[in-house]
Design a protein that fits this description.
Blueprint lengths: L1 E3 L11 H11 L8 E6 L5 E6 L11 E5 L9 H12 L3 E5 L21 H13 L5 E6 L1 H12 L7 E5 L5 H7 L5 H21 L8 H5 L4 H12 L5 H8 L12 E6 L7 H4 L9 E6 L8 E2 L7 E2 L1 H10 L3
Parallel strand pairs: 1-9, 4-5, 4-6, 6-7, 7-8, 8-9
Antiparallel strand pairs: 2-3, 3-5, 10-11
């Protein structure tokens, strides 16, 4: 069901771009110590995990999984903040890096993308087998939120007691159009530059062949990158085929565990109209929409020197009923 969010932006951060950028600035020195683990995948590749602490098979405390956004990592401001909030609750946090996002390239040409759910599925089964006594929840931010929505919709039964999808591009095509407009193109350039650098690493490691470096250097939009790189190396016909098959919006009604979806109508990364273009949702799916918040911002508080990160209050609050 759709509901209005209780989020109220800080009086000094009502602009969506300030909401989007401020948290990264405020938390540039924030750190959280993690325990790293490498999970080998069935196809010969790997993903790196970042745990808030060491756990063993008898762990009976809740485990909360975090999935990051496009070209994110455990060092992303929202990931550090959420892992810290999870730890403060007495729960165990673990972030799963998507392939190639942990600071070292993956072994195969195949990349992570908005619809790539096989790694989340394998990791989830690993958690279920390794920590059978622990209740589990999962959070996905931005691209990771779309991956999570698609993954949950595919599952006939879930190992997770609850889930949260935050600022997800649930309609990929319209969101690519949105980030290619106005000031949002600044964010797009930042992301395309990172995607290009990751692709160059794979070319130099001889994992990718037949990529024209000149054409790669000339890419300016995420849609162009997906057309040239993401779609062909992951088995899609083209960018439109990738977007159609990977968007999570239409599968939301099939999600089984209680799920909180959070979206800001002023998000400069997302198309508000298309992201929320859903007729009905089951009662256990709560779609909270706020007028403001930017992209993974949601900063509140009265004191500019003491910003409050609303997501780190709202998400644990939601999970508490199930964990």
């Amino acid at each position: 069901m759709f509901t209005k969010s209780t989020f109220s932006p800080a009086w000094w951060l009502k602009n969506p771009h300030l909401q989007t950028i401020a948290a990264k600035f405020f938390r540039r020195h924030h750190t959280i110590k993690t325990i790293n683990e490498t999970l080998e995948l069935p196809d010969g590749d790997f993903v790196d995990l970042a745990w808030t602490e060491t756990v063993n098979s008898t762990c009976n405390r809740p485990i909360v999984v975090v999935l990051h956004g496009l070209e994110g990592s455990k060092n992303s401001h929202y990931a550090k903040g959420m892992l810290s909030a999870i730890k403060a609750k007495g729960w165990v946090g673990v972030l799963m890096h998507f392939r190639g996002c942990s600071g070292r390239p993956n072994r195969m040409a195949k990349s992570y993308h908005s619809g790539q759910t096989c790694d989340v599925d394998y990791f989830s089964q690993y958690l279920a087998t390794s920590y059978p006594e622990a209740k589990k929840a999962i959070i996905g931010f931005s691209l990771g939120g779309n991956v999570l929505a698609k993954y949950l919709a595919e599952q006939k039964q879930s190992i997770y007691q609850a889930a949260c999808v935050i600022c997800a591009p649930l309609d990929l095509s319209s969101c690519c159009d949105r980030i290619n407009q106005g000031f949002s193109r600044v964010y797009q350039k930042y992301l395309v530059d990172m995607l290009r650098a990751s692709t160059v690493e794979k070319i130099e490691a001889r994992l990718l062949n037949n990529i024209d470096r000149k054409n790669l250097d000339n890419l300016r939009s995420i849609r162009d990158f997906d057309q040239m790189i993401t779609a062909p190396i992951n088995g899609f016909t083209d960018a439109n085929d990738y977007y159609q098959k990977s968007s999570g919006r239409d599968g939301l009604k099939h999600i089984l565990p209680p799920c909180l979806i959070i979206h800001a109508s002023d998000d400069p990364f997302l198309c508000h109209k298309n992201t929320t273009a859903i007729s009905t949702l089951p009662k256990h799916i709560i779609f909270e929409v706020s007028e403001r918040g930017g992209h993974v911002g949601f900063i509140s508080g009265k004191n500019p020197f003491k910003p409050q990160y609303w997501l780190e209050q709202r998400i644990p609050e939601f999970f508490t009923s199930y964990l």
